[in-house]
Amino acid sequence: MRRRLRQNRALWVPFLRVTTLSFRQELCSVLVSFSSHLVLVCLCVFLSLTRDDQPENDAMAARAQSTTPVRKVPIHLQSAQNRLLIKNGKVVNGDGIQDADVYIEEGIIKQVGNNLIVPGGSRLIDARGKYVIPGGIDTHTHLQLPFMGTTTADDFYTGTRAALAGGTTTIIDFVIPSKGQSLIEAYKQWRERADEKVACDYALHVAVTWWSPEVQQEMEELCRDHGINSFKMFMAYKDLWQLDDTELFEAFERCKQLGAVAQVHAENGDIIKENCKKLLAAGVTGPEGHEMSRPEEVEAEAVNRACVLANQVNCPLYIVHVMSKSAGEVVAEKRRQGIVVYGEPIAASLATDGKHYWNSCWRHAAAHVMGPPLRPDSTTPDYLMDLLANDDLQLTGTDHCTFSSAQKEMGKGDFTKIPNGVNGVEERMSLIWEKGVVSGKMDPTRFVAVTSMNAAKIFNMYPKKGCIAVGSDADIVIWDPKLEHTISAATHHSAVDFNIFEGITCRGGPEYVIANGRVTVDEGQVKAVQGYGSFIPTSPFAPFVYEAVTEREKVHQLIKVEREGRIVAVRNTMVPVVPQATSNGEALELNLSSVNGGEEVVAAADHHFASHQHFTRPPTSSGGRNMQDTTFSLSSEYPSMADVEEEAKGKKNSIQVKNPPGGKSSGPFW
Predict the structure, then answer these.
(1) Which of 34, 293, 472, 646 could potentially form a cystine with 275 if both were Cys, beta carbons 3.0 to 4.6 Å apart?
(2) How far apart are CA 24 and CA 273, in angstroms?
(3) Residue 3 belongs to what H/E stretch?
(4) What whole-number distance in Å separates Cα of residue 322 and Cα of residue 394?
(5) How many CA within 13 A on the CB side of residue 71?
(6) Which residues of the chain carry a pLDDT beneath 70?
(7) What is the C-alpha to C-alpha distance for residues 222 and 255, in angstroms, rounded to an integer?
(8) For 75-104, how does the pLDDT look when each residue is reduced to its tens digit (9 = 90+)?
(9) Is 471 left (phi over 0), alpha (psi -120 to 50) or beta?
(10) CA angle, 54 then 56 then 61, to 5°
(11) Is the pTM of this model over 0.85?
(12) What are the backbone angles phi and psi of residue 263, rounded to the nearest 5°?
């Protein structure tokens, strides 16, 4: 046996050497390739980490100078966050709460339930004792907006970074064309500003600041080709953006035709203009003049007028920034009447009031200037929160439109020149939780409805946005109800140097924020990435809105009253008479030669006798013949029915009366 192996050794040893050599060469080649790829990966990781957001300084000025926007995440880093598993949380949607886990992959919610089977390598987030809610949707922002001779402090990066920090994962900004500017041109400008900067998803409303056939045509193009389903009209800012009532009515009619939602900034611009003149002439030049020039009734009147105009064409109406109790009451009352109208209070009107306008510090007072203004009535925020909790108002925005103290000083000496706008995109969700849920006015499901779900439904983003369900975008917030923080300009993420909610303590806030499957707030640390967000097209005819419109049209159909009879002249009064039929069954037409001066109505047919009718009693209240009346007369002034018929037929103008009162006659009665 051993001899045989030694004999065969000469054969297999050379083969083994060759095989081993080939294997070694292949192995070396693989190791070299792997090493080169490993070096590249490490280099990319190092570069990306050097570009990531650093912890922000406490001082806002230092933070603004040192912040370098993070660009889009490299593909190798994206893959590390492609799979997330959120366990042990309470999943809250607008229609209920359940104990469930959520699995996310490639930016989409793939599974919701218990005992989920997920791939290995998924990141695990423990949400025990916390709520898992849909990312917030802020329906009202103005980022990078040119306005009143300046541009807002927050651009599309700093504004959306602040939104993410507060738990908002989608914003809807406003395209506002200059008077006479093409709506399409303005839309493209906003897209260019936003696309390269947004750190979260966004959609757009478009303002209609002037009216013409061209504007109507461009509205259709925006709906059809550019993902726009809402248009905003201004009832204020006279000589700048304001439309008159006729233009407003036609704009509502056009929105209804296109399946869009009509929005209004509801204030009476004509009254405001006159009030401003009067106040300045009286020497009132400070920020308090802003509120005095546009009192609560000026807002409520415009809200009511907008509802009346929209109702005439059954156009769904959306009132932006409801700021006063009386305006909220108008919306609530119109909804009870069946009008399709939605009311949007904002963070400012729900959490603070207008007493700040009388603060002795001009800078403090001016920082609160916005339109419509905050109301001096300190009970307004609680009242609006009650309306919101009871669905008299439906959802929340912020009207986030920030200007620095230096920019606000443009109006020193003339309150009409103070740039209008306040912050709120970061603070909105915490404030509503504090003022709504912690106070006991609403439960977590209503909180989700007013911060995300209703917005998604009204603007036709649901269920892609606004809910936690299989197939929805992975925009999720892990909400810690025990997280306590105090709002301050020193720690907020907006680029503005003042916060109108300064010093308010909120119990409840986001611990994790996930936008499109990526963790953008990680245990409170903001990791926003510039350009990571996308534009979300919104289609017209949102079912949530237009199903209500359709049902209302069925109930309130325009139905004319079909009345039998023709019109005759009797003592200068037109009354209906039973119609005569032609041989082919069609009703005969009347030739109304004249109805003035007591002239008779001439019948077109040969046997009409309307002009000879005599009635002894007036017609009924509805215009019909009085059934106790008679046409019988012995007077030659009023021929009988038979006389008229015989005359029309060319026969002798006489009749034979059988069994008249007083006895029977066999002869003619002349």
Answers:
(1) 293
(2) 88
(3) helix 2-51
(4) 11
(5) 6
(6) 1-81, 566-670
(7) 12
(8) 444 444 589 999 999 999 999 999 999 999
(9) left
(10) 125
(11) no
(12) -110, 150
